Hints:
Keywords: Signal. By secondary structure, the protein is mainly beta.
Amino acid sequence: MILSQPIIALTLLFALLPQALAGNLIVHNKCHFNIWCAGAKNDRTATPAYKVRAGHKFTSPSPAHDDNVGAVLKCSLASDLSSPYQLEVAVLEGRSFIDLSALDGHPFLAYHRHAEVRKGGCILDCPPGVQTCEWPEAVDCATAGDAIMTLC
């Protein structure tokens, strides 16, 4: 009976390990207007669009797990997510790979865009009008953690 408690504790620890290696995708809307955001995965699953009010944050229900599938946070000025701007994150073997993508649209080009992995100090910073910080520019972070995109 004494041995079963450590085994249960280790089982619980290993059950939590995948979540510890996951990274949430978070948007901080510093714009003076509302935006719409949704989460998606490279396995083609997606969440509905959520209104993110000016000055508020939104955490995607689709985190990036340590499986190299990748997760995307799409944000747009429209509720139908037309022409979305994207934070793309993949996690593999405890490393995060992030980029900002305007391939599907660029509704925030006139505004400041910033992305970083909370742990590790990996940063992409885009002043208004600048596109050289976007895909194919990407950052390889030595840690896995929450990725935060700040708009405006």
